[in-house]
Amino acid sequence: MRVVRVTRFGDPDVLVAGEAPDPVAGPGQVLVGVEVAEINFVETQLRRGITPGPPLPEPPYIPGGGVAGRVVSVGEGVDPLWEGRRVVTDTTGGNAELAVAAAANLIAVPQGLGLPEAAALLHDGSTAVGLVENAGIRAGEWVLVEAAGGGLGSLLVQLARAAGARVVGAARGPGKLDLARDLGAEVVVDYSETGWTEHVREATGGAGPDVVFDGVGGQIGWEAFQVTARGGRFSVHGASSGQATVITPQDAERRGVTVIGLEQLMGMSTGGRQRIEHALAQAAQGRLRPVIGRTFPLERAAEAHAAMESRSVLGKTLLMI
After folding, report:
1. Angle CA(307)–CA(312)–CA(318) in degrees, nearest 5?
2. What is the DSSP string of 123-179?
3. 112 within 8 A of 284, measured Cβ to Cβ
4. What angle in degrees, to the nearest 10, is found between the helix axes of 115-122 and 272-284?
5. How does residue 53 score in pLDDT terms, banded at 50, 70 and 90?
6. CA distance 257 to 193
7. Helices 115-122 and 124-135, axial angle in degrees (round to 10)
8. Domain co-membership, 9 together with 93
9. How far is residue 91's CA from residue 84's CA, in Å, rounded to a whole number?
10. What is the sign of the dihedral through the CA atoms of 232, 158, 125 and 98?
């Protein structure tokens, strides 16, 4: 089968296309014919030998943690009715034509939803739903979403809006700002511009946002924390800048802000299946729109990683197998 491997830690060019033996499903497993592999930003960091949390894999390895496709065979003890069904699932080595997955992790793709859209929602949809639940958004509150033009951020804009919030979408560049506005952000700000938080403060009547979704970290995350409303919630879920926002208990107490830290992601292992199914159902009904910015064939995985790291892609980046 065709695969892509990370041959060593480094720039996108360490991703090299090649061949590998076809895997076989063992007991309790299925073999998925991969049609779409999703890429998240953490994968680009792991490829560089940097980890925001997950353990570093040892090169050479086949990247890819989530796929969409059809079940082509089942192992011992697995219901044969899974064969031929469209599914999304967590796996390892998903940047390949075939991937082994635990039958317990399979989630059927609803009728009317495409496999690319399902792949785009596998991880980001579950995370977005969990983050919104944890933040406890109330109708009428102001919510600031960082990286609002990305795969996860674009979902957070929609879910916050659906919860009755007034949304400020923060991103870099006019294309991503236009997207955030199209998805329901009432106000958009470019955080590459000096003084961007003053625009946020003015838009929220001087009080600042009640909820901040921080997926960028670094200086942008710290500046967003500084403008969070007293009594508000600052929810950390990522570090695309390379460093998570560090908020000490003293900082939080001084500002009167509740910090929901990165550890919340570990807690999302509970109930994850229900959140994914909810996101897929919402998308199938047209209530949630996964934004797919660019797709690349498997052999051009290096270009896909480079596009993500350049911040030039709107929404989600996918590999088509």
Report:
1. 50
2. THHHHHHHHHHHHT--TT-EEEETTTTBHHHHHHHHHHHHTT-EEEEEESSHHHHHH
3. yes
4. 140
5. confident
6. 25
7. 50
8. yes
9. 18
10. negative
Assess contact for 144 and 209: CB atoms under 8 A.
Answer: yes
pLDDT at position 228 over 80: yes
Instruction: Determine contact, residues 19/2, Cβ cutoff 8 Å.
Output: yes
- Please write the tens of the pLDDT for every residue from 247-286: 999 999 999 999 999 999 888 878 889 999 999 999 999 9
Q: Are residues 139 and 95 in the same domain?
A: no
In whole angstroms, how far apart are CA 176 and each of 144, 156, 303?
15, 14, 20
Interatomic CA distance for residues 157 and 317, integer angstroms: 18
Asked if residue 286 is part of any domain, the answer here is: no
Q: What would the pLDDT profile of 92-120 be if each residue is shown by its tens digit?
A: 999 999 999 999 999 999 999 999 999 99
pTM for the predicted model, two decimal places: 0.91
Which range of residues forms the domain containing residue 77?
A: 2-108+291-320
- Number of domains forming the structure of the chain: 2
